[in-house]
Amino acid sequence: MFVQSHLSSINGLNGRSQIKFLFNENFNAIEISERGFSKMLKDAFGNEWNPLYLSMAQATVEVGKKAKTDHEKFPKYVVYDVLKVIGKPLNEIKIDPKWGFKLVEKDGIIYFQIETISGPRLFPQEMIIAAFLKSMKLQTESILNVQIKEICISTNFKLNESQKAIFEKAAEMNFLEISGFDVL
């Protein structure tokens, strides 16, 4: 199998493999590239692309499909459309009336206000992105059976410097280094 036959190079020993965390609209995915070949990793349900949703409706944070399901019953507990928000000033963000979460500006910083089982809480943007990166890191490490330290971030639009800084802080929270940013 492609993925398991190239563990040493994916772990960064020869510098030719690359782990890309892909973000496209309200979905994320993981791609492993080596020697001109790419492979999308699949989750336990066989999905390559997962919903970019985060839920605080339970005692533990949920991301992906489970969080999207939570959104139907508990919209105030779920964050999505994060790529439309992060790294932008409040006056540039188009607030969707369907959002159950709120955006709160404090000292020039935009926070997501989300309902939790303990009441409403403010979360910085990098914390939300960190939750997605953590999930993607754990999935990658579980499938490849290696620890990853370096990733590339690909989005469906060019990130501004503020957005890159948020991704970098989120990666740091997960002991990851971002080797580069590119556009899908």
Automatic annotation (TrEMBL):
The keyword NAD does not apply. Keywords: ATP-binding, Nucleotide-binding. The keyword Disulfide bond does not apply. It comes from the Eukaryota. GO terms for molecular function: ATP binding; ATP-dependent protein folding chaperone. InterPro entries: ATPase_NBD, Hsp_70_fam. Pfam families: HSP70. Belongs to the heat shock protein 70 family. This is Uncharacterized protein. It comes from Panagrolaimus davidi.
